[in-house]
Every structure is written in C-alpha cells, then in structure tokens.
Amino acid sequence: PAASVGAIFGLGQGLVYVSLGSTLGALLAFLIGRYFARETVRKAVATNPTFAAIDSAIGREGWKIVGLMRLSPLVPFSLSNYFYGITAVKTLPYTLVSWIAMLPGTVMYVYIGTVVGLAASGEAVGMSTGRLILLIVGLLATVLVSVIITRIAKKAISERGLDATNDSADSDAANSESVAAATSQEEGCADDLDIRVPADLKKD
Prior knowledge:
The protein is mostly helical and 204 residues long. Helix content is 83%, strand content 0%. The chain has nine helices and no strands. The protein has helices at residues 2-36, 38-45, 49-61, 63-71, 77-84, 91-121, 129-159, 164-192, 199-203. The chain is elongated. The relative contact order is 0.12.
C-alpha cells in the first residue's frame, strides 16, 4: 500500500498520507486493546512467551522497547498494536515513538513506489541525467539506511533477551526430536536381538 501511494501521489504527499494513516491506525488499535478489548487481547497472548518477554521489557524500559519493536518486529505489526494497549506504555509516548520508528520503512516504500511510478508513466525518460542519478542514489541510500537501522534494532533486541524465547522454543523442539530418535533407535535394537530359548527350558 505504501508503495502504491508513492506511485500515485509522489514522495512528498505520499509520505504524509502513509505516515499519517499508519500512525492513526496504530493508535486506534492501541486504544481498542486498552479500553474495549483488553481481556480478549490478554487471553490471546497469555500463553505466548514472546509477548510475555516484551511486556516485561516494556515494564522496565517503556517506549524504548516499542520503538525497537517497530524497527525490527518480533510479532506481526497489526497484532502488536492491540498488544501494546495492555502494556504499561502511555498513549502519547506510544504514538510519538510509533510515528518516528515507522518513518524509515515508510520513506523506503514510498520512495520505491515513487520511482516505479515515474518509470511507469515515462517521466523518468525525460529527466536529466543528473536528476536521474540523484533519484537512484537516493533510493539506494534510503534502502541502505533502513537495513542498517533494522540491524541495529535487532542487536538491541537481542541484547535485551527478547528473542531468547524463540531460541528456547527451537531448542526444546530439537531436544524433543533427539529424544524421540533415540527412543526409536533403542526399540529397533531390541527388535534386532535374536534371543534363543534352550530346548530343555521349553519342555518345562
């Protein structure tokens, strides 16, 4: 959607529309989760260790965790908006940090859409070489900055142990598979044993 808006309205207007729409959407879901569907959301994430870890981290560091999660989400974006509503983060900090943290991705997708729109309409053909180079370099720089920011956010999330729950789940699954394989192997070995009963014992 962000790329489509960029293709239709260009970089400037597209950025305003997408940024405003995504921030308002995130705020609306947050308010629904906080005031109208609190128990429903709580029950939905009650047994999820990832949500529990995020909730605990938000309790310690507040809006900083929301910002990191926006830059490198561990959970689906739409679901996380409702989830943040049942955490301790305040509405205003949540809204501001969501808007700021979503900007890098918004700029990247709108910029891509703008470039595609110019190419599709044929306007790029009539551009000067200098402007065309500037447009391409700007696109590459935007993508590069977005990737760097995402990696920094992932590192910060890892340092806080918020991705440990996923690693633990994978480890538990691997251990279960190993135990099952070992059990199967032992059963196979038992079946392969050729136990012979002496004839005199059979008579008794």
